Amino acid sequence: MFDKLDFISDKYDELSKKVSDPDIIANQEIWQKHAKEMGEIEPIVKKYKEYKKVKTDIQGAKEMLSESSTDEELREMAKEELSELESMVEPLENDLKKLLLPKDPNDEKNVILEIRAGTGGEEAALFGADLLRMYNMYAEKRGWKTEIIELNETGLDGIKEAVMLIKGKGAYSRLKYESGAHRVQRVPRTESSGRIHTSAATVAVLPEIDDVEIDIDPNDVRVDVYRASGNGGQCVNTTDSAVRLTHEPTGLVVTCQDEKSQIKNKDKAFKVLKSRLYDLEMQKQQQERADQRKSQVGSGDRSERIRTYNFPQGRVSDHRTGQTLYKLDSFLNGDLDEIIDGLITQDQAEKMKDF
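Given the sequence above, the corresponding structure tokens read:
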């Protein structure tokens, strides 16, 4: 770990010199790249400097103890300082481990949050509407922007399905723990006898898919030219103007013979090929998204719950961390941080086991 920290510290010093170099400052693209990288590792470097200072101070306190063998007052001071400093070492090491944990590449992305009514009929739909409101209020508290993409409502203000885009720094890093089945226990509006019902709604949290840029490697494309056939003027059957492109990794084939010029036909064929490869990539991403949603949500049955919202007791319980809060009203009003912070801590602890 410390070899890695030394490397990062040296890298930070190197970048610091680069961002101060007039030649690099003149090239804003390169300067911004270095500044961004520097900003990403700065928290690690600061924490490592803090750690090294504590270790240096520990060594100093130990030396004071050995040099002050005849001065009892100095020895007591050194002992107190040493004890205090040594108690700081383990927490600092844990902080450094957390900072060095691999980052989820999706953490800074926007979020596509999907809510669907599960077991429980109309009551499940009403609970789904409560969840939509809860996440909307949480986003508002965090300063994120929301946009409803799809909303399938019921006649009693419930929702069968809702899809919301949440835009904001770190949205996915916090909301990704919300995926799964959410269970509610309460007396439904539609229940006349006052019996408590149990219903469920499912939540899927997906990172927003980035725009796909198609960059074709020329070595992947076989270009064949041949004589055009059919109506095409005097060049038909006299010049090799038609073009066939074969994209070998995917097997896609594009032909073009509309133009008399081979160059123009080739240009058109490449545009068509890029469009088809773009469409192919989008289909692949959509399938991955569908698979991810399926793994997150499961069947929607209340037995697959990650959290229970119990209205009679005014509590919310997360079944992954074992946390229980007796402030259901504020939780449904968007105060989710205490539960989410617990989930993040648990996730980091699991990762640190394999560090």
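The longest strand covers residues 197-207. Try to locate this feature in the token string yourself.
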